[in-house]
């Protein structure tokens, strides 16, 4: 059995002087990323791998969540997650290392909501994926390359508690 946790980056500053890619987390985004890490630890323990987009807000989210879920290894940076389509994200998931049975991927909407919907059965309740939202999926395959649309069990969607911006 394999576990995939899909974590959307935390709340980010609305704009940055040098474009979208370097946007950083707000104070709320940092708190929510830490909370997501605690949620990961509670639900699955420490993951085997954390794979993040190279955008600043996603990397910050991954680092804070990693610290909160006691992940000690280096993060894997996957630049292709940034602005990836659902099909591109499926290719990224299929390339995850088979040695990792529990993986957290950190990135962006609309792709993350799209891949969550693609991987789960049609009855999964995925209306929205808020910032720092965490989708919890399980897959029975031996290899990540075996992941197919609709093949994952939807175990839940966790969103951060609403707090100040």
CATH hierarchy: architecture? 3-Layer(aba) Sandwich
Tally of contiguous helical segments: 4
Question: How many domains make up the coordinates?
Answer: 1
Secondary structure: helix percent: 25-40%
Low-confidence stretches: none
Reported for the largest beta sheet, the result is: 6 strands, mixed
- Strands in their spatial order, largest beta sheet: 3-2-4-1-5-6
What would you call the structural class? Answer: alpha/beta
Radius of gyration: 14 Å
> What fraction of residues sit in β-strands?
15-25%
Mean pLDDT: 93
Q: How many beta-strand segments? A: 6
Shape: globular
CATH classification, class level: Alpha Beta
Which H/E pattern describes the elements?
EHEHEHEHEE
CATH homologous superfamily caption: Phosphoglycerate mutase-like
CATH topology: Rossmann fold
First CA to last CA: what distance?
38 Å
SSE inventory with pairings:
Blueprint (H helix, E strand, L loop, with lengths): L1 E7 L18 H18 L4 E4 L3 H13 L7 E2 L8 H9 L7 E6 L3 H9 L14 E6 L13 E6 L7
Parallel strand pairs: 1-4, 2-3, 2-4
Antiparallel strand pairs: 1-5, 5-6
Helix pairs in contact: 1-2, 3-4
In a few lines, what is going on in this structure?
The chain is an alpha/beta fold. It has helices at 27-44, 56-68, 86-94, 111-119, and strands at residues 2-8, 49-52, 76-77, 102-107, 134-139, 153-158.
